[in-house]
Amino acid sequence: MKLIYDVHERPKFGANLVFAIQQLLAIIAATILVPLLVSNATGVKMDQAAALFGAGVGTLVYIFFTKGKSPVFLGSSFAFIDPLIGACAYGFCGIILGTVFAGLVYAVIALVIHFTGSGWVNKLLPPVIIGPTVALIGLSLCGSAINNVNNTSVGDYNLWAILVGLFSFAITVLASAKGKRTAKLIPFIIGIGAGYALASVFTVLSPIVNVPEMNLINFTPFTQLNFSTIFRVPEFTFVNAINEKASLITGWGAVADLFVLFAPVAFVVLAEHVADHKNLSSIIEKDLIKEPGLKKTLLGDGVGSIAGAIFGGCPNTTYGESVGCVAITGNASVATIFTTAILCLLLSFFNPFVVFVNTIPVCVIGGICIALYGFIAVSGLKMIQNVDLNDNRNLFTVSAILVVGIGGLTINIGPVTLTNIATALICGILTKLILGKKKED
């Protein structure tokens, strides 16, 4: 695709700030949802503002390691939710130590690539494998987007929520496809703004027309804000860890348990890391596996995860939402990603912003995600447009990945869970290896 801003181009300050806010809105819902889910499951309070700060720190670390050549944001990783829940038994020190183990896995793999090169990655993951895997990342998120649109992620089925979600999607698409140059660059801001406005109208009308289902926004948190709560220092994980003094890590058994919880998951997330960078490479038409190189992207991701968890408690990962935002807007400027990270650091101290984000109806987010996740899926399918699917070797490889992944097959090996994406990728690789290369007559 034709990029409006290439990787090293810098939009003007005002425009870049608006583009960064759009990236922030694309990633923030998922980033602050992870600590909320862990807190609800364990009772250990993980601060959403601290997770936002950690995501900003992790992204800055990633930009440093990749020398500003890869325009993607790092946010809280959903793959580590179960390890985080298990680590809460060992306190905040356990969370940090577990993330260090995961980061070390990335460092070891990066060291292997340093000595062996990354050529084997392209051989192991050719377009016939990586294409459907990228498509699967988008397709596997479709259920989440639709659950948000019809409101079932937070309550019962709601027709009014569906109307708002589809309206948000429609406005986003119209802004991207039919809008003028500026509108094409900020379709998600326009879509979220329009969806929020319509949801606000429904909420105001709800008591008047006596239709409780129209009440889509809870404005109560805004009324609880006062001057003393406008600015708030996040509850950083390392501060809580210092106060705990590792009192819950009672011996080497606990350390081994944390290693088993986190290290294997890092291998699983590795597949998504490669898929995201392959996808982003096809969008910006630069092979990120070669330059800055998989070694540097892995180190950036791994060290960024450790840095993010030290502040926010959540290991980070490259976000498909961020990649989708780059693809749809044509803005691949790393300056925008850098500004987004800085905004995360600053806004984590500004309580009204966190409150505002939490009041955005999930149906609005769902409508935006229809566009985001769909674009990720289509990007993956474009990777296999030159693959010969008349060859049964390729046909069965793609079929294995899509059916296993969309079907949701996961494999539990002790405390380790292979996600549907990891399982599908492994099935695809094994299918390709078993069938072998096409023999010439």
Structure characterization notes:
With 441 residues, the chain is mostly helical. It is 71% helix and 3% strand. It is built from 20 helices and 4 strands. The chain has helices spanning 13-42, 48-65, 81-87, 91-116, 119-124, 127-139, 142-149, 159-178, 181-185, 187-209, 220-223, 237-244, 252-284, 289-312, 320-329, 334-347, 351-359, 362-383, 392-407, 420-435; strands at residues 74-76, 316-318, 411-413, 416-418. Strand 3 (411-413) and strand 4 (416-418) form a beta hairpin. The two termini are 38 Å apart.
Strand order of the largest sheet: 1-2
Query: What is the tally of beta strands?
Result: 4
- % residues in beta strands: under 5%
Q: Supply the number of helical segments.
A: 20
Given helix and strand content, the structural type is mainly alpha
Low-confidence stretches: none
Estimated radius of gyration: 22 Å
Q: Please write the string of helix (H) and strand (E) elements.
A: HHEHHHHHHHHHHHHEHHHHHEEH
In one word, what is the shape?
globular
- The N- to C-terminal Cα distance equals 38 Å
Question: Secondary-structure blueprint of this entry?
Answer:
Elements: H1 13-42, H2 48-65, E1 74-76, H3 81-87, H4 91-116, H5 119-124, H6 127-139, H7 142-149, H8 159-178, H9 181-185, H10 187-209, H11 220-223, H12 237-244, H13 252-284, H14 289-312, E2 316-318, H15 320-329, H16 334-347, H17 351-359, H18 362-383, H19 392-407, E3 411-413, E4 416-418, H20 420-435
Antiparallel strand pairs: 1-2, 3-4
Helix pairs in contact: 1-2, 1-3, 1-10, 1-16, 2-14, 2-16, 3-13, 4-12, 4-13, 4-14, 6-13, 6-18, 6-19, 6-20, 7-18, 8-10, 8-18, 10-18, 13-14, 13-15, 15-18, 19-20
